[in-house]
Amino acid sequence: MSEKSFQDYYPESLQHCYGCGPKNPEGHHIRSFWEGEESVARFTPKEYHLAFPGYVYGGLVASLVDCHCVGTAAAAAYRAEGREPGTNPPFRYVTGSLHVDYLLPTPLGGELEIRARVEEIKGKKTIVTASVIAEGKVTAKGRVIAIRMPEHLRPDPG
Ligand SMILES: CCCCCCCC/C=C\CCCCCCCC(=O)SCCNC(=O)CCNC(=O)[C@H](O)C(C)(C)COP(=O)(O)OP(=O)(O)OC[C@H]1O[C@@H](n2cnc3c(N)ncnc32)[C@H](O)[C@@H]1OP(=O)(O)O
């Protein structure tokens, strides 16, 4: 591993998410990075991640959008304050809303790219939109409303 992904900055207690936790041995290990104003994650589905022969299961596509966008919301909160991730006070987010439009069947076999953009940061809510790209085509679009994690849910109060 060279460059640190957003998820590498999550505190240990939040590194077990099935979608993006680096410490979940059964998980997808989604990793997100800034590329200018966009964030990008790349993921190659396994052959068993299929919906029907040759095409990716839509639930997996939704997971990729979800974790990538929630991670982007957290990263954007630090960026908006000009702070390094991992500095205090911490920003933690959960999914409040996840919407996915499946525009084309997503071909199975190659790498998918998930590109996201922060549309709005408003109080506790951050709206992030994403495109899922396979073989140069946008096969799905997503919109996530990420919400600041309430204190009572946070495993790492501070
Ligand atoms: C370089 C980066 C470094 C980063 C380091 C950071 C590390 C950590 C960061 C991240 C860790 C992430 C770990 C992975 C997570 C993966 C994603 C998941 O799978 S998360 C699991 C699935 N999601 C749930 O289980 C939520 C369940 N729902 C709830 O707990 C509540 O409903 C919650 C917290 C979402 C909202 O609770 P309320 O409504 O009591 O909270 P109130 O404070 O009143 O609302 C806040 C604002 O949000 C709006 N809101 C709430 N729900 C909404 C919704 N569904 N749609 C739109 N707006 C909503 C409200 O209207 C309110 O807006 P107004 O402030 O008044 O403008």
Automatic annotation (TrEMBL):
This enzyme catalyses: decanoyl-CoA + H2O = decanoate + CoA + H(+); dodecanoyl-CoA + H2O = dodecanoate + CoA + H(+); tetradecanoyl-CoA + H2O = tetradecanoate + CoA + H(+); (5Z,8Z,11Z,14Z)-eicosatetraenoyl-CoA + H2O = (5Z,8Z,11Z,14Z)-eicosatetraenoate + CoA + H(+)
Q: Where in the cell is it found?
A: Cell projection, Ruffle membrane; Cytoplasm; Membrane
EC? Answer: 3.1.2.2
Q: What are this entry's molecular-function GO terms?
A: thiolester hydrolase activity
Q: Where is the Thioesterase domain?
A: 54-138
Q: In its UniProt record, which GO terms are filed under biological process?
A: fatty acid metabolic process
Q: What is its main location?
A: membrane
Q: How does it sit in the membrane?
A: Peripheral membrane protein
Q: Which domain of life is it from?
A: Bacteria
What are the annotated GO cellular component locations? Answer: cytoplasm; membrane
Question: Can the keyword Cell inner membrane be found in this entry's annotation?
Answer: no
Q: Which UniProt keywords apply?
A: Apoptosis, Cell membrane, Cell projection, Cytoplasm, Fatty acid metabolism, Hydrolase, Lipid metabolism, Membrane, Transit peptide
User: Cross-referenced PANTHER family, in alphabetical order?
Assistant: ACYL-COENZYME A THIOESTERASE THEM4 (PTHR12418)
Family according to the record: Belongs to the THEM4/THEM5 thioesterase family.
* Annotated protein name in UniProt: Acyl-coenzyme A thioesterase THEM4
What is the scientific name of the source organism? Desulfopila aestuarii DSM 18488
